[in-house]
Structures are given as C-alpha cells and as structure tokens.
What we know:
Shape: globular
CATH architecture of the largest domain: Orthogonal Bundle
Distance between the termini: 48 Å
Strand order of the largest sheet: 3-4-5-6
Number of helices: 14
Helix content: 40-55%
CATH class of the largest domain: Mainly Alpha
Strand content: 5-15%
CATH topology of the largest domain: Lysozyme
Number of strands: 8
Largest sheet: 4 strands, antiparallel
Amino acid sequence: MLPHHIHYISDSVSFVMMRKKGKKEYHLRWGILMLLILFTAPSIYAQHRRMTTKEYINKYKAIAIKDMRVYKIPASITLAQGILESGSGNSKLARKANNHFGIKCHNDWHGQTIYVADDTRHDCFRKYKSAEASYRDHSRFLTSSPRYAFLFRLPITDYKDWAYGLKRAGYATNPRYPQLLIHYIEHYHLYKYDRYGLKRSKWHRENRKTLKYATPDVSAFVKVRTSMYGRPVLENNGRRVIVVKKGDTFKKIAAEFEMSMHKLLRFNDLKKSHILHPGELLYLERKASKAAKGYKYHIVRQGETLWAISQLYGIRLKSLLNRNNLPRHYQAATGTKLRVR
Length: 341
C-alpha cells in the first residue's frame, strides 16, 4: 500500500492527465509516480526498519562510557541492560518515550509519563526527552537506591559479578537475567568499552590479560528453544547445542531431535563407542572453524582434553588441531596455550 502523500500526488497527476489522452500522457503519469516512489521509499523504509543490536551499540556506546566515568557503573553492563530491556531500541517504550531501561514512574518521578501494559494493563513508565536522559536516569537510579549499594564495592571490570548482583538486588524477575546480560557482553564484546571508563594504565594492569584468555561460560549460553521433551536448546558460537544429562544416549538424543545418529556423531567429532557423561556439550549442527570474536587463546586446565576444548568453543576438533599444528590424539599438558581463533 502506498503512503498517503504518494496517493495524494498520484491523484493530482491523474486529475491533470484526465484532460489528456494518448500513450504519451499515460507514460508520463506513471513515470512521475514511479519517481515519487523511488525517492520516497528509502525514507519510509528507514522509519519502519528495526534497529540491529550492532547499530544500537554503535549509537549508544559513547553515552555508556561517559556515564561509567561519572557513576562508576560498567559500560558493558549499561549497554547490555539497554539491549535487553529495549529490544535493541525497538521496544515501544524506547521508540515512544526514549525509555531504554523500563524504569517505571514511582512516587519520586515528576517528569512526563507514558502508559504501557506490563504487570497491569496500564503501567506508568517514565518518558524522556532523549535516550541520553534515559541512560543518565538509569545510572542515577542505581546509585541512589540503598539496595544496589553493594554493587559499587565490586570490581568495576567484573561484569559477571555485576550481572548476578543486579539479579540478587531484585532488579529483574527473569531467573536468567544475569546469563542474558553476560551473553550480550561476551557475544558483542561489550567488555572492551569498560576500558575507556578507566585510566589506560589501570586497564592494562588489571584486565588486558584476563580478557585475552577469556573462556565461554556455559551458564551464559542463551536458550533458543525447547525440545519436544522439555530439554533446553542453547546457542554457542552461533550453533545450537545441548547439555548431556544422566541417562542420555546417542540414540535417545538423535530421536529427540529427529536427526540421524550418524549426523549427531559427525557434528561432535565422536565415535559410537564414546560414553556420554552428564555436563558434556553436544552440538545439533556442524561446529564452526574458529571461536567467536573475543576468544583468541585457551590455557589448558588439568585433565582437559582437546575434544572438550573444541566443544567449549563450538569449533571443529580438526580446526583446533590444524590451528595449533597438533596430531589428532595429542594430549596437551596443563598450562599449554592453544590458539582457538
């Protein structure tokens, strides 16, 4: 359906053309109409297109960094909360009220308001003049409430403790709130923005080495769906993965996900003789050739096998071996540095 203003112009052109007849006039009319559509469509599309998470980060990262310096809240946490609470800027609250954190009115709010269905049919939420005002109010909200005071005694670069601390303080009711924040921080490497809120020397001393050897956290894997038997299907490195539980066999898992046992074994670099253990990761699709961005090296832990490492990062065992020039059955010693990307 054409926008109202194009219909209006189209009707005006039609009125003029009604007085004339012939192919020239007909082609002229449609030529003008198509030019109008050509030049107007991009702006209409831009108005209705959903913002991507990467676009959201690029748009608001400077505000999060600035607020980190003033209010001592990790920029990574602020950005992750903004992404989660506003749907990367696409929620009604974000679009209509510049409210990126779902902060309700409360008794101390004297600014503009908007009513949106949440816990009740008409919940009162704060309305801001700009997204920056929303970010600032979110920072003030955390710093002014006694129940969040303990967070500011945590290391400012420890985004995991902050994520779990927010849940412990009652910021959100979603039981997976910390894991979701951590997922966004690690998937989009939001932790790198925390360094801009610190002095460079302090960042290099406390965090550079830690982040260089970061490892995926299984508890932070995002749930993408549930199997027919209620098993959570997670995502790691862009691949669907499950966690093995007691009593699982290849045959049972293959039947549960309606796939051949041959594929299940091939996707996980395993043979039929492998005995499954609770807690192991099994991928439901072919693994990647390298780890996700943000992971470069892995330090081998005691008793850790190359296969277990490949599963943790969601990369093919052959790729891990080739990247480190290792034979297939090599057992890396504890403390060995392996390249995963």
